Amino acid sequence: MALKNYVLVCGGTGCESSKADEIFQNIKKEIEAHKLQDDVQVIKTGCFGFCEQGPIVKILPEESFYVQVVPEDAKEIVAEHIVKGREVKRLLYVGKDDKRKTDFNKHDIDFYQKQYRIVLRNCGVINPENIDEYIAREGYAALDKVLTSMKPEEVIEEIKKSGLRGRGGAGFPTWMKWDFTKKAEGDVKYIVCNADEGDPGAYMDRSTLEGDPHSVLEAMTIAGFTVGANQGFIYIRAEYPLAIHRLEIAIAQAKEYGLLGKNILGTGFDFDIELRLGAGAFVCGEETALLASIEGKRGMPKPRPPFPAVKGLWEKPTVINNVETYANIAVIILKGGDWFASIGTEKSKGTKVFALTGKVVNSGLIEVPMGITLREIVFDIGGGIKGGKKFKAAQSGGPSGGVITADYLDTPIDYENLAKLGSIMGSGGLIVMDEDDCMVDVAKFYLDFTVDESCGKCAPCRVGGKQLYGLLDKITKGKGEMKDIDNMREISLAMQKASLCQLGGTAPNPVISTLKYFEDEYLEHINEGKCRAGKCKDLMKFEIITDKCVGCTVCARKCPVNAITGEKQKPHVIDQKTCIKCGVCFEACKFKAISRG
Amino acid sequence: MFEKEGTAVKLPDTLLKFIEEWKDKPGNLIMILHQIQEEYGYIPREVAIELSRLIDTPLAKIYGVVTFYHFFKQKKPGKYMISVCMGTACYLKGGEDIILEFERLLGLPVNGITEDGLFSLQAVRCIGCCGLAPVITVNKEVFGKLTKDMLPGIIAKFKGN
Ligand SMILES: Cc1cc2nc3c(=O)[nH]c(=O)nc-3n(C[C@H](O)[C@H](O)[C@H](O)COP(=O)(O)O)c2cc1C
Ligand code: SF4
Ligand code: SF4
Ligand code: SF4
Ligand code: FES
Ligand code: FES
Fold it and tell me: What ipTM, to 2 d.p.?
């Protein structure tokens, strides 16, 4: 008997933090109270991507897309929608045109309109804790096809045709890694998945693992068969407990179904996967450091060559790929490399998942075809800039990347174009900045991060990073000199050239890139002691404009350090020595009587 | 818990069993340290000494690893660990102001602990809820879309427990 309704409740980390589990439990209780448990299935899925609007509940077959649901809404959802067949209008997502919006697969909702889902095909669709739901959507069909009808060379050929490149940052062709490892000598080989997701402000891999863990397990097993490995490791951040939990469940279920372990699908092929937890060191995202960490050591990078494909984990040939790279594999096997290669640009095929965050209206997780423009991402998908402010730049590639400015909003996004602009594709962090963000401060933020995360093994990174940070700090404090700019360029060059690993090698990128596009802002800080974004506190001064102040006392009551005094209905004053420049008064004054300069 | 250096410790059975399971696996040290921190909330020195004996690994090597990874703590944290996200998305949306406000409300510097041992404060990287920036966690509970005026309520909620 077909079920009457499916209720999908988002169980991604974002929604879980806003009581999604309580919503899920309440809906189940209500369904049972109405004795409908045989007609209605309630499923907790992975992230829908539209985290900004969470918690999200979607009901099939009507495709009703409920947003910002609270646990108390469960009663009404069940009584109205399920029992009486009437949508709960007040919870429906409403688009810019004020119309009720429904299914994201049909691209009805503006946020989903230009998205294309390959990697996230199952996120927000299946219950990630139930292997049957993955299988029902062609899960493990690719593994079956590979093990029963393909030779390793054919798998590599298909991936070569697809043009898939690594999604962890560098964009190295995946087929080549597999081919090198396959051809490398050795009877023991390893498959490693990089789930260390170090870019601060990005959560693509986390959501993929939480929403569809089997897609990665299946791909790793295919990789194992292809290169001749029988053991895989997933190196995952300890800070991702939900993803770890779902992976553990997925591994256990796959073993139970004979899709992992000994004699997979009766073909005689053995493959096992174990988890290894990271411990909060960004450098461990770098592949040689990651392997050292799996070996239980301090995660220090090693010079390459030898590459992991030849000498990797415990000196054995090792394939190491990113989560998103793996999540593409099964689809490529099933639909063919040619199909995959038909999506994207000449040299960048397929899609890319981005964590779209910062000052956009719709922040969330998106998957778009390569070649889409930044304008489409920020304005069509992202819904533009919050609060009607002006777009200033978007940062891709995190601490190893750079900014893309308004002049380049129409450049198609792919590996080559981003590199030309002085940024990188990176793993998928895409942070949108507006006029309130100071570019010098942003560069300093990233340098602070890389200095903190440098492993200290080589001097260009250890010493150069600190020097760069020091100069940026000086400039944001209004103490910069013109010669600092040249100095920064020189240090950056030295770091790029002489660092042992790409952490140090790419650390100056945010500085070089912001200097390239926003040199005027640097000069303003240095020459005029001014921060136009109003972010650099040492350059700021809040003053009350006597003529405009009506003495409403709001600012004085809100100031956290009691720096404002004045009688009711008389102009107030700020004691500059006490003021900590928090800006609370500036925002609180309804009469625009406080100046920031 | 461990007042004096050098006092012998008895590890809980679950932990001993875990160590036994992992003892002969290559690369076991980090996984065992995770388990220890899960148990105690940090890596007590006495436990590290005991571990050194159990898995026959020099203490210097254990501390080499503990000090390299930010995740491992050597000091006992407060009952409630407030972790303020300072990932890029949260930073741009005022994560720093949230930290400063917690410092002010609790009278603590970052990485400090309140005298009653109830709260400690730390800055962390992306928690993976950037859509809800700025974000904090208190132990494992996540709070998003924060404004400064919500913080006293959050502190009060845990104080009450
Ligand atoms: C400092 C540094 C950090 C990195 N962090 C990550 C990361 O968090 N996740 C990731 O997949 N790759 C990361 N990489 C890239 C890896 O070294 C490696 O290229 C990647 O795992 C290869 O997988 P792919 O070919 O599928 O992209 C990092 C590299 C460097 C230099
Ligand atoms: S570049 Fe930095 S992180 Fe890389 S090895 Fe050198 S010091 Fe360590
Ligand atoms: S900026 Fe902050 S500290 Fe200074 S006067 Fe205004 S409210 Fe008070
Ligand atoms: S809030 Fe504005 S108008 Fe009111 S006292 Fe302060 S400065 Fe004057
Ligand atoms: S976590 Fe629910 S939509 Fe992303
Ligand atoms: S940057 Fe704070 S949750 Fe991602």
Answer: 0.91
